[in-house]
Amino acid sequence: MLPSACNSRRIAQSMASRRAGTAGRHPRRRGDPGPYRRAGPETRRLDGSPRRRHGPGRERAPPPPAAGHRRLDPRDRAPLAPPWPDLAIATGRRAVPYLRALKRRSGGRCFTVFLKDPRIGAGIADLLWVPAHDRLRGENVVATLTPPHGITPDRLAAARARPDPRLAALAPPRAAVLVGGDSRHGAFAAAEQDRLLAGLDRLAGEARLMITASRRTPGRLRAALAGLAARHGGFFWDGSGDNPYLGMLALADAVVVTSDSANMVGEAVAAGAPVLLFEVPGTYIRLRPFFAALRRHGAVHAFPGRLEALPHKPLDCTPAIAQAVATAYRRHRDAIARPDRR
């Protein structure tokens, strides 16, 4: 089945479910409150129906040295068997040899897509997506300002229509607070934790806070956030019950987000509320052009510690990415069906 305008969104949702680790792993399960959970790799037909599982779960992926990009280590191989998927989407350098194996073993029929820069060139897949702040470019490279994700207008509308009771109990205005934490690029220093907490304490005087943290959030900050929510009659997700992430974005009159995760910021700017960016010193230097572009677009503003009537322009590049995949896939299938037109 060929992609069409009506199923580009299905491709987008598939892309959102494969953003981190090997193909099929939950997108950046950073302990952030992402709304999707996946048990392992899976392929789907382009009509959205399950086909069969392929490839390894993350625990079976090979290590990422250069040799691993070229071929599968026999010790780490997992079953790759027909029927081959029409479309395979992967991310993370550990997935590169598996994506190449799918392409080779399917006789070139499987259309392969890789998300983010593999750091070994654009030849590893039929189509690559990279964020615009990355340098990789090429005829088969799609670059957009924000990353693909599953925060769609329809899902937000559904979450508003049937709100999470824990969030609906909070009187508006409400502010969603998305807090990351330490990364290999820098630690969330105590002084910055205190600065964030002071700003949120001021904001809590104007809005009910709906707070979620990451597995990377320092324990001291996590405890302080929970105490802040309790003290001001807000909500802090402690990991119990259903994941409230989508509902938080849907009900938010403003979104406060820390600067350590491009994915988290990309989802926030699609939600339709003003996004207040708390910039942490030591944030990955390559994200600075990303934030500057978002500011020029009017999608993010500095976090002032209060609600303001700020202009905001929702920004979501996922449909454009999905359409690029659909268009390239259609060309690929057409070339297979008519070899003389290659």
From TrEMBL:
Ranges of biased composition (kind: Basic and acidic residues): 39-61
InterPro entries noted in UniProt: Elm1-like (IPR009367)
Annotated region described as Disordered, given as residue ranges: 1-85
Compositional bias annotation for Polar residues: 1-16
One Pfam family in the UniProt entry: Mito_fiss_Elm1
Protein name: Nucleoside-diphosphate sugar epimerase
